[in-house]
Amino acid sequence: MFSSRNFLPSHFVNRRVPSLMLRNSRPVLFQSSFSRNFTNVKDAEIRRKVEDVIQENSKDAESGHKADEISEDSKIPEKKVTSLGELVQKKFIDISKKLKKPKSSSHTSSAFGWKDIWNFLRNNWKQLILADILIALVVDKVSEYRISSAIENGTRPVAKVKDGQFVSRPQISETLKKVFQSEEDHSYYHVICGERGTGKTTLTRMEAKNVGKGVIYVDVPSDFENLGKAFGKAINLSFFEDTSIISLLVRKFFSSAMGVTGGESAISSYQWRRVIEIFRHASEMYKEKHGKPPVIIYDNVSRLVHKNSEILDILQDEAKDNADERTYIAVFVSSEGSVPRRMQLRSAWSRAEDPIEIGDLTEEESFNYLINKRKIDATEAGKLYDLIGGRILELKSASDKLLKGKSFEVVKKKIFTKTEDKFRKAKLLRKQVHFKAGKNVINALLNSKEISRIAFEEFFNRDEEAEEVLEKNIFAYHPERNTVTFQSRSIENYIRNNASMFIK
Ligand SMILES: Nc1ncnc2c1ncn2[C@@H]1O[C@H](COP(=O)(O)OP(=O)(O)OP(=O)(O)O)[C@@H](O)[C@H]1O
Ligand SMILES: [Mg+2]
Q1: Ligand 2 centroid to 439 CA: how many Å?
Q2: Distance 197 CA to ligand 1 centre (A)
Q3: Are 448 and 429 in contact (CB under 8 A)?
Q4: What is the pTM of this model?
């Protein structure tokens, strides 16, 4: 009948654990429940046998526990087990202790380390692979659909200009529209450039949205880690590795082994290359359907030129290859002359169309903005235009200040303080290293407004010095004419305001 020693413990441990868990903290309750169960057992002999089993198990449990480990809890003298309820309760506590203290925790770090990941992968690889395959299939199918519909409809980015403040620039808009509406046999890529704050992003977004279909807009992030993500987001791609269990663990492993940044870099590099491949494939399908390639716009690509210039090179090579194959048309938008200068030096430049420069607003557009859009008084608008010229970013910032009640003189002072900082960074102030060469450039420009790139470089002892100064937003490089000018009218005005320092 009840001859098996294992019958009671296993039966109760397996079948009653949920209720034990609830009652574990209230042993009295547990005991009364247990006793109730046994009021039905009439046979006294059975009761005696059961109690024998209890006693034996009690001894086992105690000795087993001592042999297993000497824990904090084991220092507390343990009461001898007298009922089946207590026995099962004890068993349960033993099991929980074992679960809490896995043997694998031999390393000292309390963090979830790569050894744990490895152990976990080794013990569960079959289930993980199965789960991952299912996830991959679903993500792949969903992505395929989402990417082709993203290219089909275009990203349609929204230009961030307040309602009623937008000044139209029809000529530039027309040029951009033509670039974004590619033709079947188009075999070039494009570079759109212009000094900081001339309105490149605003017009690019606006025309990308107007053209809509087949135009993908990517805002290139300043950190490489997010490049693949930004690209993926633009084409609506869900990354399998963001949902895959194995991938999450492998990421964790990489991060432990290579440091967080190293690990993330390896993953982003992989993600980024993959997203480019996916995009290429989806572009081929788009072209087959519509008879013309889609367009991808990389805005703010100058963010890559200093820290991740090799990524820029790869993008340029990709742009060349895909222009050759007419798979997609790439458009690079840059605020810094250093981007086209770098691109021009590479063989892939042979497939680039002449750069398109977005410069300052014309006088008419500037007054339209100041007087009609911002409601600035005509006299003040005239003074502002004389000081700043048509640089929209500066016109906007000065209008904001005037409308907040600041006087023109205060605004002017702030602009000159900011400009002086730029001179300081470029090391062009008196006693600074590039003062003499810079002064010569300044005087040449005051005489002729524009000088050739070579003439500019000749004022410096080394080309690197010329490059260093050219990057600091005092002078501007114009790739389509290969010339150098002042970067903005406020720079020129600052120089005239400090004639004794700069003018011979
Ligand atoms: N046509 C326009 N009408 C009204 N406001 C504009 C226009 N173009 C740009 N702006 C405003 O001028 C500011 C600078 O514009 P935007 O960011 O487009 O310049 P950018 O050339 O892309 O600058 P960066 O070189 O820093 O990338 C923004 O605040 C924008 O709202
Ligand atoms: Mg921009």
Answers
A1: 30
A2: 5
A3: no
A4: 0.71
